[in-house]
Amino acid sequence: MGNRLSKIYTRTGDDGSTGLGDGSRVPKDSLRVAAYGTVDELNSTIGMVLACDGVPEDIAEALTQTQHELFDLGGELCIPGMAMIDDQDITRLEQVLDRFNDPLPPLKDFILPGGGMAASCCHLARTVCRRAEREVVALGREESIRPQASRYLNRLSDLLFVLCRVLARASGHGEVLWQHERRRKPSASSHD
Q1: Residue 133 and residue 82: Cα distance in Å, rounded?
Q2: Residue 191 has what pLDDT?
Q3: Residue 112 forms beta bridges with which residues?
Q4: How many CB atoms within 10 Å of residue 127?
Q5: Contact 80, 146 (CB under 8 A)
Q6: Chain centroid, CA 125 distance in Å
């Protein structure tokens, strides 16, 4: 690839528009820009997970591969009609998810975001992933997009949830469980 970013500012977006990968211009608040912008945000939050101390090597490898795929997905969303994410990428996520989920004990309670810095960053990535998925679904109602985009994000959010559990356990902090019993109904005598 040649020198593509010789000038960082162009002033072309000062009017509230931005260029898509096919050369067309759209408003910066369009559904398409929101979708690929949130995919970029998701990629950045995964970078935060990878920057944390103590991330196991197998998780780092899986997340680094995911960052490359998210860059591809952003490109697909930025260039109408482009196909960069395929069923093989979704299958890879499912295989990684199964590998990390199988040794975990069954989940009996809801988990709160926490469990150490890496797990907390992974929870943030999970929630950004869910937002990216919602934005891709919204875009798909207005414009033609491939179903692989939302399927990939759906599977990735599941994987990130599992990785939150693994990272919390690996950190020694453990999973932070929601304590639903903490909200007890007041007894009749407490209203005196």
Answers
A1: 18
A2: 53
A3: 176
A4: 14
A5: no
A6: 5
d(CA 134, CA 113) in angstroms, rounded, equals 20
Give residue-wise pLDDT tens across range 16-75: 766 667 777 866 778 999 999 999 999 999 999 999 999 999 999 999 999 999 999 999
Query: What pLDDT score was predicted for residue 9?
Result: 60
User: What's the pTM value of the predicted model, to 2 decimals?
Assistant: 0.85
Residue 37 near residue 27 (C-beta atoms within 8 A) = no
190 phi, psi to nearest 5 deg: -80, -5
Nearest to 167 by CA among 118, 121, 133: 118
3-class DSSP state for residue 176? Answer: strand
Structure-block tokens of residue 9: 């500012």
CA separation for the pair 108, 145 (Å, rounded): 37
At 19 the three-state DSSP class reads strand
Angstrom CA distances, 112 to 51, 102, 177, stand at 22, 21, 6
3-state DSSP assignment of residue 112: strand
Kindly list the structural domains of the chain, giving each domain's residue range(s) and its CATH number in brackets, ordered by start: 26-102+110-175 (1.20.1200.10)
